Q: What sequence folds into this?
């Protein structure tokens, strides 16, 4: 009997195989890697402290001592924790597993959250069928995402929260959209900037985000997060920060003001564009001025590239070329390949150049030809917040 598979079915099967391969490779790496220091060990340590009644929650901001983290069965040396206490409580469930099992579980969940986030962005851009499958397959091999997997980081969770916030805003639920941005801000502060930009279109998003973020400080000892930032943010600096501060620190301040001002002006000009377009602009501009950054942080940039490539038919050829060049510069930077993730980003301008081109593309779209507003095909919700 001859079995005939349609192109769509074959493509779906291919994506499923790629999906399984990414899970397998990343979990095997996570299971077998034994670095001297580990971010995941830091997350697991914080989660265990949150569930340990004998240890105060503020202990997570002290440099982990072997006598304490060995108590939790951690076989890698944790680094200093740099997230909020609220984020530590969100991570607390992983303490139910042993250290090695938790590492594998988190790696698998990272893949699931990443694929879900990409699917949401594709839905927002009304990409279906074969194009959906192709773009989803390409996203699985996004190099910063692979780096995120190998280091078992939390960037895919932040990406999911950002995608859900945009999704809910498009469904006329801005309060819930702002809530998810507030939750994302417990891990990294930059989602607050996204909320401010989206607030140009609906102020409820900004208000809900700030309220959620502020409410997290009702947890005892939460303010210790800010006093610990200068101790935890010392490892990797962006190329602009590294180069400009070596000339004069004032130059970096001027650089940030220029990028922020242009981004703010472009966002205000495009405030009637859809939420996904505004988010892409805010993401690219924010990451461009972040002084401390690592390669896996760029996992969230897949949001911007999906939005661009999904609308490629409406873009001028030169802008399509710029988007592809930016993608390749970020993806193919040979000194930042995930297997060489210990390299310092401060040493090479290739990655920053790719991000700068992406930002310029978003600014151009906002000022002259913003991405078209797609009417939501989800049933309108009559409840207003």
A:
């Amino acid at each position: 009997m001859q079995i005939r598979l349609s192109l769509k079915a074959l493509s779906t099967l291919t994506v499923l195989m790629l999906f399984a391969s990414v899970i397998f490779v990343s979990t095997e790496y996570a299971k077998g890697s034994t670095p001297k220091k580990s971010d995941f060990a830091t997350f697991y340590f914080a989660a265990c402290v949150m569930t340990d009644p004998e240890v105060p929650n503020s202990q997570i901001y002290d440099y982990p001592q072997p006598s304490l983290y060995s108590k939790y069965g951690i076989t890698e040396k944790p680094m200093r924790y740099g997230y909020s206490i609220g984020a530590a409580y969100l991570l607390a469930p992983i303490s139910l597993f042993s250290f090695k099992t938790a590492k594998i579980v988190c790696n698998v969940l990272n893949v699931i959250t990443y694929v879900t986030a990409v699917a949401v962005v594709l839905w927002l851009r009304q990409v279906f069928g074969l194009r959906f499958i192709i773009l989803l397959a390409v996203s699985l091999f996004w190099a910063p995402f692979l780096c995120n997997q190998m280091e078992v980081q939390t960037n895919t969770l932040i990406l999911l929260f950002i995608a859900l916030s945009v999704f809910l805003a498009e469904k006329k639920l801005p309060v819930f959209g702002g809530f998810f941005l507030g939750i994302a801000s417990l891990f990294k502060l930059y989602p607050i900037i996204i909320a401010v930009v989206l607030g140009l279109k609906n102020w409820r998003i900004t208000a809900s985000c700030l309220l959620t973020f502020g409410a997290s400080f009702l947890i005892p000892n939460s303010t210790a997060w800010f006093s610990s930032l200068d101790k935890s943010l010392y490892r990797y600096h962006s190329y602009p920060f590294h180069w400009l501060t070596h000339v004069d620190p004032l130059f970096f301040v001027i650089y940030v003001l220029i990028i922020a001002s242009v981004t703010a002006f472009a966002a205000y000009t495009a405030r009637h564009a859809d939420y996904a377009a505004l988010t892409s602009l805010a993401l690219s501009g924010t990451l461009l001025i972040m002084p401390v950054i690592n390669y896996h942080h760029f996992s969230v940039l897949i949001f911007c590239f999906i939005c661009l490539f999904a609308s490629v038919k409406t873009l001028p050829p030169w802008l399509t070329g710029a988007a592809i060049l930016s993608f390749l510069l970020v993806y193919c930077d040979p000194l930042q390949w995930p297997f060489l993730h210990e390299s310092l980003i401060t040493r090479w301008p290739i990655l920053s150049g790719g991000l700068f081109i992406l930002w310029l593309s978003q600014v151009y779209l906002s000022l002259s030809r913003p991405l078209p507003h797609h009417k939501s095909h989800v049933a309108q919700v009559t409840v207003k917040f």
